[in-house]
Amino acid sequence: MRFCMVTTFYPPYNFGGDGMFIYRLSNALAGQGHEVEVIHCVDAYEMQANGPPSGDYPHHPNVTVHSLKSKGGMLSPLVTQQTGHPGLKNPRLRQLIEDGNFDVINFHNTSLIGLKALTYGSGIKLYTMHEHWLVCPMHVLWKFDREACTQKQCISCTIKGKRPPQLWRYTGFMDSMLDNIDAFIAVSEFSKQKHLEFGLNVKAPIEVIPYFVPLPEVDEVSQDEAPPHPRPYFLFVGRLEKLKGVQNLIETFRRYDKADLLIAGDGSYETELRSQAQGLDHVKFLGRVQYQELQRLYRHAIAQVFSSIGYETLGIVLLEAFLQNTPVIVNDLGAPPEIVEQSGGGLIYENEAGLIEAMELLRNDPSLRTALGERGREAYYRYWTPEAYMPKYFGLINGIAAKRHLKVSG
């Protein structure tokens, strides 16, 4: 089959987990013999990035990547943000989609690609909802840069976030564009329900298909592998943004020094976090860490701490920790508690006292840490491998094909 992945961000021109998942999905499909073309916007990345992209992302020979870049530079994504149309990137984008003869067109984050692109092409059209952009112009239901959103005040929130309001959201434009989609994919039950709660009104079904994380090429780890850090530690992995709650972790570790806190990641809130942590020698910033080294950090951590104070749709880093037999400790908000309850691979906290209690339980009881880690890894094999994902993905595609009397395989 021929697949087209349409997304704003794609490695190395990406910031978060959605781009990484699209990369993994594209190469997994290619590994099964399918042809995959990826279309993404370089201008959108460069408008928000502080420097050039980094990281090595090899592709299967069956994957072709089209990086859209216009002479208008940052004007291109600005036009798209304001109109919902591809704008300056439209001729090339439309040609790639309509001339590609794709069996399946999977849209992902289209915020700076343009909703109008959903009308291009004639293949089966899927929309994967990695974030909450369809119901939130700020993507993540994080209100006024201070709290999880419980009631919409989108225009004032957008202005507070230093973005121009999208007036097209208050017309019928989005609904008419979404009518072109055959099925939507939510990555957790929580995210599906949150989309519906905040007013997503679509004719097509919304199917829940969680992310997957592929097994590393070498799964055997030496029993004598040296820890990457000299002291016992808890690990945070993710973008350094306010809604990730790392500022709360730092305050907790101001009073908790029985283990270190290692922070892997970068982002727009990093400078403030480093300033906050001055004088705390047991809080270490690692910057962006390549995945191979990240796996080693997971393996030797007491636990991964997921401290988000916003509505996460899932959290790929939880699955990455489970893959390394490492338990997780998650804040009781968003989809992460759903993942912990499903797997039995971690602990859930509601406040600082609960976080410290959870950390102390795992620090003082290695057998409990081992048991939770093993449960997480067992659940990983049941729910979050490519082998678990693909039957659901192709089941959705084949069901749509049958309704539309199309011939597809996979």
Notes on the structure:
- The strands form 4 sheets. This protein has a 7-stranded parallel sheet with strand order 3-2-1-4-5-8-9, with helices on both faces. The chain has a 3-stranded parallel sheet with strand order 10-11-12, sandwiched between helices. The protein has a 3-stranded parallel sheet with strand order 13-14-15, with helices on both faces.
- It has helices at residues 17-31, 42-48, 75-83, 90-99, 154-160, 173-178, 189-197, 246-255, 270-276, 291-300, 316-323, 336-343, 352-364, 366-383, 386-404, and strands at residues 2-6, 35-41, 63-68, 104-107, 124-129, 142-143, 147-148, 183-186, 206-208, 233-237, 260-264, 283-287, 304-306, 328-331, 346-349.
- It folds into 2 domains: 2-212 and 385-404, 3-Layer(aba) Sandwich (Rossmann fold); 233-382, Rossmann fold (3-Layer(aba) Sandwich).
- It contains 15 helices and 15 strands.
- It starts with a strand and ends in a 6-residue tail after the last helix.
- By secondary structure, the protein is an alpha/beta fold.
